[in-house]
Design brief:
Number of helices: 12
Number of strands: 5
Strand order of the largest sheet: 1-3-2-4-5
Order of helices and strands: HHHHHHHEHEHHEHEEH
Distance between the termini: 42 Å
């Protein structure tokens, strides 16, 4: 596909896990990631290069703190306490990474048990290290004052703003805001569609959607939906398509997805979009300096 996922190979692998039908079935009962089935891969088993790097863990924590700061206006001390709590959560996952590195030579193909552990770590990374049972969340509950807690709780109740299926307009907005587009194909009277929509609007996911995505709802039983359904080759509902801010398709998932699968998919697409934006900013800031310097020589 030519896209650069998280450190190239990492996120492409993770998305392939998420969208693999066997994994989706395993995740429907919200079972632990250790039960995930390993999908087929074109080059055999994964290597240790598939695992998250230290900088990727740091990015997750930084963005988590930034999101909370945007809602609660945190003090420097609160940010530091959250960082310490989040680092403890990261250490738990990184210890699993280090154990794998100690028992497997870098670059070697792994055995089935190691392969499954790599999949489990990737799913944990994608699902969000800082969940309700994390040290980060426990610290957050302890350090927010009453006003900040009220703001946080009020923000959790704000609904997702679903846009009409005007894809060209959504792409234009997406590029300006640097947000991926989530397109949700559904049928109003369909029970699976209703279940999927309820998950997308759940407190656990709607903050992520509101802050980092543009959301487009497409009822396939309407006249305006016909060209959108045709363009994205949708064959069943519910289905979800995610586009990058540049309009490239990042993933297509058909069928009812669990909360874990949705969260993981959204996190990876969000991280990829933000990393691409950061890389673009670095390129634009360095290039003009070279251009300006040339006439002065």
């Amino acid at each position: 596909m030519g896209r650069s996922w998280l450190s190239g190979f990492l996120a492409a692998i993770a998305i392939s896990i998420i969208l693999n039908p066997a994994v989706i079935r395993a995740a429907e009962d919200d079972s632990t990631v250790e039960t995930v089935e390993i999908p087929d891969r074109p080059n055999g088993r994964w290597t240790l290069d598939s695992l998250p790097k230290a900088s990727e863990f740091d990015d997750l924590l930084n963005w988590e703190i930034e999101d909370l700061n945007g809602i609660c206006d945190l003090t420097p001390e609160q940010k530091q306490n959250l960082r310490l709590g989040g680092q403890k959560d990261i250490q738990q996952v990184r210890r699993r990474v280090e154990r794998l590195r100690e028992t497997t030579k870098d670059g070697e193909h792994t055995d089935a048990n190691t392969d499954k552990e790599i999949a489990a770590i990737l799913m944990k990374f994608g699902n969000g290290i800082f969940d309700e049972n994390s040290m980060f969340t426990k610290v957050r509950k302890q350090i927010l004052n009453s006003d900040q807690t009220a703001r946080f709780e009020a923000d959790q109740k704000v609904e997702v703003n679903w846009l009409t299926p005007d894809i060209p307009e959504a792409k234009s907005m997406s590029l300006k805001l640097n947000r991926p587009i989530l397109i949700f194909f559904h049928l109003q009277e369909s029970a699976p569609s209703k279940t999927q929509q309820a998950l997308l609007n759940s407190p656990d996911l709607r903050q992520l959607l509101r802050q980092h995505f543009l959301c487009v709802g497409v009822d396939v039983n309407t006249e305006v939906a016909a060209p959108v359904v045709r363009d994205f080759k949708i064959t069943g509902v519910p289905s979800i398509v995610i586009l990058s801010p540049k309009g490239e398709q990042m993933c297509l998932a058909s069928g009812l997805l669990s909360g874990n699968v949705l969260r993981s998919t959204l996190n990876y697409c969000r991280l990829e979009a933000e990393r691409a934006a950061k890389a673009g900013q670095n390129n634009t800031t360095s290039q003009p300096q070279d251009d300006k310097a040339a006439p002065n020589r």
